[in-house]
Please model this.
Amino acid sequence: MSSYIDFKVGINFMKIQSNLCNLWIFLVSFLLIILISQEALAGNIFRVIGGAGVTKTSFDYEGMESSNHHYGVQFVSYVSDKHAYGIEIASHRVFKSKEKTYEYLSVCIILEAMPYRVLWLNQMGIAGYIGTGDNKNKPFGFRSSSGVDIPISKTISFPILLRNDIIFEDKVIFSSSLEAGISWRF
Model:
């Protein structure tokens, strides 16, 4: 009887995760329409990012590699001198084992703050992760990053950030990485 209850609870939890992911995809689409249709008060930024790091999880697969990598794009609109909101679309390989590779396509709503308008950059967001490859799950998660945004000119800068992702998969996955990229301000 206990295993039947555990099975039913697991199925209901997976349905909730799938519905939450679908909700976030809808919200991100809605936000993208708003970003495209409104003129930003203090400018827009298009950013290409990539990073690598380590993963901590309670999954225990044979031959598991704890390294991760990701790459993606961000579109951010500044609504004041220091605050922005936007969208990130990225591909993640969280970990790999002999049995399974955990890869995701993430769609994330991000909030960004640049307290001193130059150099220091903080981001946080909530994401829907869509499993790709061997992974067919659709969990949700949170991300945060903090670091420097080194200006090269008025329109180009190089962000270097320490990023943390928390993904609520069957078991919680913690992913930390060093992220770098290039930003175009327009």
